Each structure stands twice: as structure tokens, then as C-alpha cells.
Amino acid sequence: MDRARDFARQGFLVLPGFVSTAACDALKARAEELVAGFRPETVSVFSTRDQTRTSDEYFLASGDELRFFFEEDAFRPDGSLRQDKALSLNKIGHALHDLDPLFDRFSRTPELAGLASELGLKQPLLLQSMYIFKQPHIGGEVNCHQDATFLYTEPSTCLGFWFALEDATLENGCLWALPGGHTLGLKKRFVRAEGGGTAFQVLDSTPLPNEGMVPLEVKKGTLVVLHGLLPHKSGANTSSKSRHAYSVHLIDGTAHYPKDNWLQRAPTLPLRGFGPVSNG
């Protein structure tokens, strides 16, 4: 398999068995520990339906933090949770790979460093990470999007590593991707607005196509690699089984990262590549 050639042609790779079952289980157990220690003083809901409305300060300041975001359907009309906190969260983001030793080690293996280089990143930097729960019954749909909309560089260099920590099926909301769709160009950017909050900056008003998308049903331990310009989405989880996943996004340090990108980090936590791994 010529991974670079296949990636250039279709805009994604599906690599079964890239990580071990034990590594998946260790990440899941660590996420459970983090959730158990989470005391929700600020309730932030993650939604892809109305992103500018839901981009609160808690979200905007999460680029170099470890923060928790709830599912839209986790709450009763009075604002109380319908079920346990651990079954109500959408994700943890966005600096797990730098702030938690276990996620650091998982994200910075020689195999991933080699893959990033193989796919063309000259100075790979780990920019963002997310632990995604896709909860049973309430795991929300993620609309069709391009990762470079949110993680924009000039030129475009965003690369996504998405790990299935549990089997991903049509029923529990697997990924869908548009083969070759990364050649369509970037449609819009998600930026910090001048007056506060966020806005979408339209670059090409042609909508992303819904036709031709294929489901990526994958087994636990699979790595799905996503080109930053690839249109992709995931369905709602209508099943009784969760669909835990971990994703980390990279950019090339040789590219320009604008100051109006939503995700910004303090100088005290600069972006790192695949250098020394923490010893925690």
C-alpha cells in the first residue's frame, strides 16, 4: 500500500489495527478519570448547527486548556442533566496531547511521526486534540465540514488523526467522507470576530456536496487520517452503544497560522511536534 499516493488521491486513509486494544482501553480509562474529577462550574454545549452562537468564552479559551463540553440533548428544559455527567458529555478538548501525560505519549509515537512526514508535513506541530464520546442515544450529528475551516494555515496544511477507541458503525455514528473531496478547495473559515465571539468568513459560496459520501465503519484500534480540506461528517448515535474516539490535528510549522483563528495558545504553552515525550 502506497499510503502517500492513496492519501493524495482520496483525501483520507483507513489504517486498521494501528493502535492496540490495550492502548485504546488505557485512553478510555484515563478519560473516565478526567470526567470523574470534572466539576461543571461552567456549562458549555458543543454544537455544529449554530457554531457562532455556541462559541462562548469557555470554548474560545480552550486551545491550551483541558475543558469539557456537553451534548445538546443532555439537559432537561429546566437545565438539569437528564442522566449521569459521564453520559452527558460531547467531548474533552483541546490540549489533551500537551497537558495529560498519557495522551501525550499516545499522540507522539514514532509511528505517527513517520506517518506525518510520509504525508508531507515538513515540521509537524500538534495543534489540537479532542476526546469524543458520541454518547448512546444523544450523541449528536456532526454536519459536513472541512477541518481546515477551523484550523486554517497559509498554505493549507491541516492533517487529522482520528482513532477509533471503540467500533464505529452506522448505528452509533461512524464517520462519512467524500473520496477526492479535498480537491474542491476551502469553503469558509471560522474566525474570531473583531467585536468578540466568532464568525464564518466565506471563501467560496459553493456548498459542500452531500452526494457521494461513503461511511467509514471501522473497528476499534483503527486510525483514520483526514486531509484538512476533506469534506466529512458523522451521524447521530441512535444506538445503545457509545462510539468513543480520540482525534489530534497537526499543522506544518513552515506555514502561517493567522492570529484571527479561533484556536490560540498562550506563549507559555507553545506548539510542539513529536519531540521529547513527557514522563508522567
Automatic annotation (TrEMBL):
What residue ranges carry the coiled-coil annotation? Answer: none
Query: Mind telling me what this protein is named?
Result: Phytanoyl-CoA dioxygenase family protein
Question: Looking at the keywords, is Oxidoreductase present?
Answer: yes
> Species name for this entry?
Archangium lansingense
The record's SUPFAM superfamilies line, in alphabetical order, gives: Clavaminate synthase-like
- A GO molecular function held by the record: dioxygenase activity
- Name the domain of life this protein comes from: Bacteria
Task: List UniProt keywords, sorted A-Z.
Answer: Dioxygenase, Iron, Metal-binding, Oxidoreductase
Phylogenetic placement of the source organism: Bacteria, Pseudomonadati, Myxococcota, Myxococcia, Myxococcales
